[in-house]
Amino acid sequence: MAARAGLRKSARVFFTNPDMLHVSILPQHKAWKTVLSRLKLVVIDEAHMYRGIFGSHVANILRRLFRLCYVYGSSPQVVCCSASIQTPRQHFSWLVPHQSLQPAARTPSDDPSPNTNASPEITVIEQDKDGSPCGTKHFVVWRPTPPPVTSFDPNEPHNPDLTGSTIFQSAQILATLVAAKVPTIAFCRGRKLTELVVEYTHNVLRRQNQSHLIPRVKGYRGGYSVESRRAIEAQLFRHELLGVVATNALELGIDIGSLECTLHLGYPPSIASMWQQAGRAGRSGHDSMAVIVCFDSPLDAYNTSLGSAMFAKPPEPVVLDPTNLFVVKQHLQCASLEMDLLSPRSGTLDIDRPI
Question: For 67, which of 196, 256, 336, 347 could close a Cys bridge (C-beta 3.0–4.6 Å)?
């Protein structure tokens, strides 16, 4: 505890997340008074991920944060970093509170007069193309044609009746890439699929007399201990692994220049997610490949029918609603615990002036 108190006084940069703000920093804002009073810049990374009901909660957490910043006399600037989205200005204007009040330290009385002529300014810095280091990306769409299944033995993943399945063919592709020394990350929809693909890939390597490569193929998902995940991440950065099977836990914020291929079990849930996942490979500037192994589903069949047009579609709009009544009610209770809601000094007035 003493060490944490010392950090609050001496540190200049803090890395945190919305959960920590909600659970610890905002309820204990008096302990963070020094930090909040000197706060100059708030950087929100991967801002496009704050959408839907989750994004609405985060937007209200940010409003509580800025309200307390006002109380302690600071008015930080906000920088949002995001992947490509259709309407960045609209999204960020909903995510970030439009605080047009002057800081409390500049107000001589407890009855501050908001600057009603001031309007929030949002500057969108865009690029005509992806700004991350990346060479040419080649997409391969793989459509398995499974034979009729006449028997199923979960203990025999190499059963000939199952070799046409999306899961097993993905494992075969991954094993082939690993045997060819092509560093690959495979994305799965859920923990169970992750473990199945890892198991099947190990079985394929074993049957191909490539058992020495089995330790170089591992899974990565929620549910692993922190120590296990950090160990896998370290192996990735040291280029000790040739294959990683992951959920979307590795979709964001990873920059491993050695990855040359991404493998996707089914089309990712959105256009933005597809490009995020495919963007994990080829970041050294070399060409890379993304292999999408389709499930036998109407959605994957439709996406496949689009052909190259699928990869020319713009990202979907990112939507959130910070005024959602059910969300606001919960955060009002939290905000009232942190500071009186109706006190002029609390920074509640005019905190969300619409653009």
Answer: 347
